[in-house]
Structures are given as C-alpha cells and as structure tokens.
Fold asparagine synthase (glutamine-hydrolyzing).
Amino acid sequence: MCGILAVIGKRLSEEKIGGLSKRMSHRGPDESDVHVTEEGYVLSHERLSIVDLETGKQPIQGTSTAWMIHNGEIYNHQALRNNELKHHTFRTTGDSEVIVHLYEEFGVDFLNKLDGVFSFVVVDGKDFIVARDPIGVKPLYYGTDDEGSIWFASEMKTLVDQCSSFAAFPPGHYYTPETGFVEYYTPDWFDYKKATKELDLSKIRESLIEATRKRLMADVPLGVLLSGGLDSSLTSSIAARLMKDSGQKLHSFSIGLDETAPDLVAARKVAKFLGTEHSEFHFTVEEGIDILKKLVWHLETYDVTSIRASTPMYFLSKGIKEKGVKVVLSGEGADEIFGGYLYFKNAPTADDFQKETIRRVQRLATADCLRADKSTMAHGLEARVPFLDKAFLKTAMETEAVHKLPKTYDGVEKYILRKAFDTPEQPFLPDEVLWRQKEQFSDGVGYSWIDELIAYASAKVSDEQMAKASEKYPYNTPATKEAYFYREIFHSHFPQENAAKTVKRWIPKWQEDLDPSGRANTSHVATNAKKQLEELAQI
C-alpha cells in the first residue's frame, strides 16, 4: 500500500511535488520517487513495500510511453501476466505493473479485469486514466486549481491548499479527460429486487475462504486484527487454516482499555483455540483523548463513530508495526453485507433490509473503509478486507433478503454467516464466539471509552456554541456536543467548505436513540466481563 499524488496540466518542480507528497509519507515509509513526463504531468509515490520488495519501486513505466502510480493490491496479477498479458515484457515482479500493461493492451476498458483494491493514475502522452476500486477500500481525492490543472491524491491533506475545489473520487468509477467520470462497476446486486438467489451456506463459506486466500499474498510478515467478534474471528480462523500447511505462524492482535474489555476476553478465547501468536495492547482514555487532534488529521473526517472506533485502531496499528508486521487481515464489511448492526433487527420488511445493506456497502468508503485504511496507514500498516472481495459480495448480496433478516432467526444478527461456519465436525470457532452478540469496535474495547469520551467532549463545548452550531456549520450541523467537538478539530485542520462536504455521517436507522454506539440499541445486552474471565481461566 502507498500514497499517490498526480498533477495533470502544471509543471511543478520535483522539490515542490515531493514536499506535498511527503504529507502522506506515513502511507509509504519505505521509499519514494517522482517522475515528470515530457508533457509536464507529475507523478509521485510514497511506497510501503509488500510485494516485490526489490524491484517494485514506482512510478512504473509500461512498455514505452505510459507511466503509472498505484495504491493497493492486485490479487490476480499473476493470472493476468500468464494470460491477457503473456506477450508483454515486465520490468518488475510486483502486482502493480499489470495495470499499465492492461491499459496498453485494452485502452480504458480493463477495470473489470482487476481483482483487488486500487487507486491509480496512468498517463500516456497527453492521455490519462484515473480509477478507484469498486467499493472504495483505498482512498482517492481529486481537485482543480485556479489554473485549471487537475490533481489526484490518496489523502485530502495533499490538495486542500493547492486546489480551489476538491472532492472524494467516487468508488467504482474511472475518469479520463474525454469521458469524464464513468461508473464501471454496476453489479446486479445494486438493485434490491435482484436479491433472488436461494440460500447456499456452503457457497458463502467457500467464497469467503477463497477471498481470504487471495489476501495472504505478501513478501512480508502477515497478521490478523482479532477483536473476538464474529467477523475478525472468522477471517483469523480461515487464515490460520490456510497458513498451517506453509509452516508460517499467524500473528493476532487485539486492543482494549484493560484485560476486562469485552473484545479482549473473546479474542483470547479465539487465539487460544486457533493457536495464534497473540499480542494484546491496552490504552487509556486519557491517551485516546490526547491523540484526537492528530487522529482527525489522519482520518480526514469528523464522523462520530469513525473517530470513536479509529482511536483504539490507531494505537493497535502502532503496536503491530512496532512488532515488525506490515500486513493484517480485517473484518470490515460483514456488518454492512449481512445487516449485522443491531438496528437491522428493526427493519420493517425484507426489502427495507436489503435496501439498507446496499446503501451501507455503497457508503463504506466514507465510513469503515476510510477508518480501516487511514488509522492503519497512519503507521504504515496495510489492512486487507476479505469480506469486500467482489466474488464474495456477489454471493452474499444476491442471496434472497428474507434469509438474512434477524427476525427470521429469533433476532440473531448475521445468522447465515454464523450458520455457514457452524461445522461441528471441524469447527472454525468456539460456539460462544461464533454466536457472540454484535459489539461495535468502539464499544468492545471497553464501555467506558465512549462514555468518558462523550463526557470530555461535552465539557469542552458550551450551550451557547451548540445554540449557534447551525450558523457556524450549516453543512452537516453537529447534533451533539461530542460531534461539535470533533467538527472543531476537523475545521482547524481543514477549514474549506469542500473538505466538510467530503464527510458522510454514520447514523443508525429504525431506532429511537440515534447515537451510533451499538449500546444505544434496546436489544443490546451488556457483556459480563468478570464472568467471561472466569470462564476463560477454566479453558
């Protein structure tokens, strides 16, 4: 994974572009480079080396005149080399280079051949194409300056003082000067009426196993983020099985306020069951509060739930990187795909349920994907998300919605995912973890984290400020003192109106209390951490 920056239409010095690019040096601490084409187009790259450690430096030149920068991973790069691109000569053995060769072979009509996550820019003479992966796992922003030049970058902070207008690049789209924005990813499941497939538990299971297998591609140590919840525990279990025959030891990592945190207790059970090399990290509420300003700069959002959850993820990523691991698997996406958030239990109908899963998946780029990418990449750590594999999405999202409704199964959220991996003959997880209640990450690290954070933020914002909130912030007006507090921090970093408009707020539906914490849902049952610790000691 990396940070990319491109400027089309303005000739900048390598010193100038390099300085701007270094604002994202956390994304690529291993090496960096700049290339200026004959037309004056500028490409800059900050590299986190994961695949092809020796020759994978970017920008990468194609066969002749085309050049490329890429942030992401292309999991089918070897198959593309062996088939569609078998007559091409490559300069590297890395996954990224296939992009520029596909452009040379097919023009702009190659995006659906890619299996992976990406934000990239390819320039060829005066022509260029820019694209972002289907769900927006990898971030990308674009803007224009006062002279009409077009800018593209992995993070907004690189553009805000250079561009007069800017926005988030839409997922599943590409851009060329001739076509403008084109949506290339339009699967059938975008239409809720096409969720008509019969439930096939074995297909769901095998599809997720294959999605995880792809994401083990790395030339560096690999680990898993293990919260002890269903999603991260499943990806950890699958990875442990797949890596067992290779002789590699799987590293697992968890975080909480203290040893009684609900996630830490459950994660220990999973780690012991799987035999992973497990590491546990703690942080204090005071430490979390102290890094909020720096965290918002990294995240580029003021969304309440993103900041709450990103704080422990930021500390966890720091600890993981210090242990020498550069790639981790994560469970993002499962709650959106299967309606795992507790408010989904209140969906009025199966159609409403399906529409909401589609909306949530389509907005992942503004929420969980943004959080997972930026809080990990703040420390040069790459997070991979098997649940957002294109093939797995197709299998899960096209399954008839009635099979996913929690009310169909006595209120058990994500029932079909749990059932798909409920294999007593060769269990993937202990029953108490496989059927564990949903805990959102910001709750699972310890309930007092959110409670004390709300109290701190509320003490920092006066009633008078809240009364005038709509005057100061007419767009996405903060509804609580906590939200106002985060908005103030965001505004101190990014005061531009365009910056505020890149943010989408995460708000639950179908419940009276609209706080994004899972504990705000009336169906939430608090975890008895003391009892769980006693049970764990007996295992």
